[in-house]
């Protein structure tokens, strides 16, 4: 059977997509630090990540939660950090990687929580920033939580929204 149309047979199976209608205001040239600064808490959903960049971002905030979108993209080191058993954490402390040690300390004190999507693959890349004074910023696009995405090693689509409406959504 020859397919006459490239899109023939494609369907969303009747499922409505969650689409945000937005308005373009301007394009800005920002460093990742400028994009993320000025907030106290961060909530992240990322598909893949780099531990060193996670630490660079997490240390900017009093509190952080990260959801990794798939078990398959989590490194062994992140699995160990996510374990709450003292023996596993002690084994990691024997390594010399400062990012791991710092992340472990944050997990132990309760100011960092790490989760992994198990049943449903989560491919979102979303960064929700919250400040104690009531300001909000939501960053979204194609950028995973990694050096490659936020330090200019590859092209990404990055958009941010300010305000409570984006935060609540």
CATH homology-level superfamily: Endonuclease Chain A
One letter per element, helices H and strands E, the order comes to HEHEHHHEEEHEH
The overall average pLDDT, rounded, is 81
Record field, number of beta strands: 6
Count up the domains. 1
Structural class: alpha/beta
State the shape: globular
Write the layout of secondary structure elements.
Layout: H1 32-36, E1 41-46, H2 51-58, E2 63-68, H3 76-82, H4 86-93, H5 98-109, E3 112-116, E4 126-130, E5 136-141, H6 147-150, E6 158-162, H7 164-168
Parallel strand pairs: 1-2, 2-3
Antiparallel strand pairs: 1-4, 4-5, 5-6
Helix pairs in contact: 2-5, 3-5
Describe this structure in words.
The chain is α/β, with parallel strands linked by helices and 169 residues long. It has one domain: Endonuclease, Chain A (2-Layer Sandwich), CATH 3.30.870.10. The chain is 29% helix and 20% strand. The protein is built from 7 helices and 6 strands. It has helices at 32-36, 51-58, 76-82, 86-93, 98-109, 147-150, 164-168; strands spanning 41-46, 63-68, 112-116, 126-130, 136-141, 158-162. Strands 3-2-1-4-5-6 form a 6-stranded mixed sheet. α2 (51-58) packs across α5 and α3 (76-82) runs parallel beside α5.
